[in-house]
Amino acid sequence: MASGMLFASVAQAQITVSLGGYTEFFAGFYDDDGVNRTTREFELETEIVVRADGKANNGLLYGAKVELQNSTGGSSASSVGTDEASLYLGGTWGRIELGDFDGAADTLKIYAPLVGIEQIDGDYGDFAGSQPAFGIHIPNSGDATKVMYLTPRFAGFQAGVSYTPESESQAQNVVAIKNSNNYKDWIDGGINYTGEFSGFSVALGATVSSASGQNGAVPLEDFTAWNVGAQVGFGGFLVGGGYVDADDFNTPTTGSIGGDQSVWHAGISYTAGPFAVGASYMDAEGYKGAAGDYNSDYKAYGVGAAYTLAPGLVVQTEVMFFDEDVVSGTPGATTTTNNDGYVFIIGTRLDF
Question: Are 266 and 279 in contact (CB under 8 A)?
């Protein structure tokens, strides 16, 4: 026992451990067409990030990252759980990551520049106007347990691929029964490029995501989705956007009216010293929302601003507008409902 403890002490002494994270507080004021809805609420998000990084004498980089986040939900009880956790190995040959984290498609994507509380990709949907399941991003395996390889960046280019055996399976959970999750054999991949030319910055990216639908309670179609995105910057300005073709993501093998799903988005931002302002727009068509929703359309747009009061401390605000048409029911017996409204948020964020 004593020798084991001595070994652990020596091993840990070679690794640098750091602690960081952030805390965000939002005050939201909102309105939509829902029945008996509230119109104002507070929201708090906190994440603690623990990192351990080491470098061996042979140049091998290695380490781990654990993200702990406060829970969300309607209960008065609060708890803290693991958001992401992974370990990595790296070197001149690239990087291998193992654990619970977003895969290659999410890591390598390029999308519209966003300011404030991230506008079309932000937290306004927590208050009203819930977005499509994949938002402005390509459908991906999320934080399910996976393996990922990223190449080193060469001449501005970097590529990667990740593999997830079972969707919605994380941490110590082992899926023992076939067809108990929505998807299996989820593969994410992509490539992006970043560079600068005559005062202009350029970022380009293309990603792909593919998974096999399982024959569970609601059998799902296999799908292959893809995404392209670009950003161009000059001075304090940044302009960009992207397009996602989500194929038959989350589509039942029978009974579905819908077909392909897609979303495009665009944004512009301007930064001058501690101040930044931006505007963005998204348009999603054919997305599947809750079970039984088909051929829905969703649009959202808004403006945001941020001001850095002190190192790590930012004041943020945004106003978002949304318009959603949802077709629900069963083939031959559908109804269409509309929900539109706005969300105004003001908040603070402290990174430490």
Answer: no
How far separated are the first and last CA of the chain, in Å rounded? Answer: 37
Q: Tokens 């747009």 belong to which residue?
A: 301
The model's pLDDT over 191-244, given as tens digits with 9 standing for 90+, comes to 999 999 999 999 999 999 999 999 888 888 899 999 999 999 999 999 999 999
- Give the model's pLDDT for residue 77: 57
pTM of the model: 0.88
Cα separation, 265 vs 298, whole angstroms: 12
CA dihedral 193→197→202→205, nearest 10 degrees, is: -20
**Pairing status of strand 261-272 against strand 237-247:** antiparallel
The whole-number pLDDT of residue 67 equals 96
134: number of Cβ within 10 Å: 21
Total residue length of the chain: 352
pLDDT of residue 13: 46
Domains of the chain with CATH codes: 94-351 (2.40.160.10)
Question: Do 28 and 318 touch, CB atoms closer than 8 A?
Answer: no
- Quote the mean pLDDT of the chain: 89
Residue 77 CB coordination number (10 Å): 6
Label each residue of the chain as H, E or C: CHHHHHHHHHHHHCEEEEEEEEEEEEEEEEECCCCCCCCEEEEEEEEEEEEEEEECCCCCEEEEEEEEEECCCCCCCCCEEEEEEEEEEEECCEEEEEEECCCHHHHHCCCCCCCCCCHHHCCHHHHCCCCCCCCCCCCCCCCCEEEEEECCCECCEEEEEEEEEECCCCCCCCCCCCCCCCEEEEEEEEEEEEEEECCEEEEEEEEEEEEEECCCCCCECCEEEEEEEEEEEECCEEEEEEEEEEECCCCECCCCCCCCEEEEEEEEEEEECCEEEEEEEEEEEEECCCCCEEEEEEEEEEEEEEEEEECCEEEEEEEEEEEEEEEEEECCEEEEEEEEEEEEEEEEEEEC
Q: Which residues of the chain have pLDDT under 70?
A: 1-13, 71-78, 255-259, 287-295, 329-333
